[in-house]
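Tip: read the tokens left to right.
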């Protein structure tokens, strides 16, 4: 009896350790639970990711390629007399890296610069000038280059007059030189938000009194600043004051409606706060 039990135990041991048949392996793989499935091979996973990235890149390139220039360079002639040239390679690379220039709904150039510039391509002060210049150039295509030429020029002159006034208060400075170029971006955004023909304008009242108060505030500022002008020789002060008031006279002529008045006020109070 003892020998019989030993024989049975040996047979059971051998059957448990016998290699699984190939058919059984296939059956187990098919019937495996989701958690038991083998992970996707690493090489195949990377291949799928690369393919997905390529598709995204191609999609982006196809989306922006219609904006590429085909000539050797892009030459931009601005309303302020500046002429800037970008090579074909540089401008097409900029187009690839900054699709925000072609957004359906553009945002203010200050917000656009702060949101989309990472400090590599337009990180310097001069680089920021170029960004605003290109912002204006591309948005002008959307707004209509010729259609709003007179309004654009008026806005640029309004902003430039304010910039010039405060530049004289401060006896110059690099800030005002950079503003001279960035004004192009500000003006083009103003054209974009400007009420167009046929659009309902809620407020059509006479602006004479508001405008008079604004102009008066600038003349008062000239008077107040003159009290602290210790750099101009006494004999030259009258000539300096005359030049400052001439700038305000020009602003008075340029501001002809409520939109231009609000743009002048916003531009001044946003960009020229000092104490």
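Filled-in amino acids:
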């Amino acid at each position: 009896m003892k020998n019989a039990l030993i024989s049975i135990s040996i047979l059971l041991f051998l059957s448990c350790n016998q290699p699984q048949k190939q058919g059984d392996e296939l059956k187990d793989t098919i019937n495996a639970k989701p958690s038991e499935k083998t992970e996707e091979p690493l090489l195949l996973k990377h291949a799928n990711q690369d393919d997905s990235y390529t598709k995204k890149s191609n999609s982006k390139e196809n989306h922006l390629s219609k904006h590429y220039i085909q000539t050797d360079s892009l030459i931009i002639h601005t309303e302020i007399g500046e002429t800037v040239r970008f090579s074909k390679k540089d401008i097409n690379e900029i187009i690839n890296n900054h699709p925000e220039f072609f957004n359906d709904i553009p945002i203010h150039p200050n917000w656009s610069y702060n949101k989309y510039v990472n400090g590599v391509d337009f990180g310097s002060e001069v680089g920021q000038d170029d960004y605003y210049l290109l912002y204006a150039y591309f948005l002008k295509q959307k707004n209509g280059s010729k259609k709003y030429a007179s309004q654009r020029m008026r806005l640029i002159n309004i902003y430039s007059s304010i910039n010039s006034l405060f530049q004289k208060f401060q006896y110059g400075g690099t800030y005002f030189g950079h503003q001279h170029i960035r004004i192009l971006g500000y003006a083009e955004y103003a054209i974009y938000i400007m009420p167009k023909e046929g659009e309902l304008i809620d407020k059509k009242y006479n602006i004479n009194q508001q405008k008079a108060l604004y102009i008066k505030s600038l003349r008062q500022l000239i008077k107040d600043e003159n009290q602290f002008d210790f750099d101009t020789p006494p004999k030259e002060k009258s000539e300096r004051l005359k030049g400052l008031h001439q700038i305000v006279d020009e602003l008075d002529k340029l501001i002809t409606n409520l939109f231009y008045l609000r743009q002048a006020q916003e531009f001044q109070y946003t960009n020229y706060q000092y104490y």
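Confidence is low (pLDDT under 50) at residues 1-60. The longest strand covers residues 73-77.
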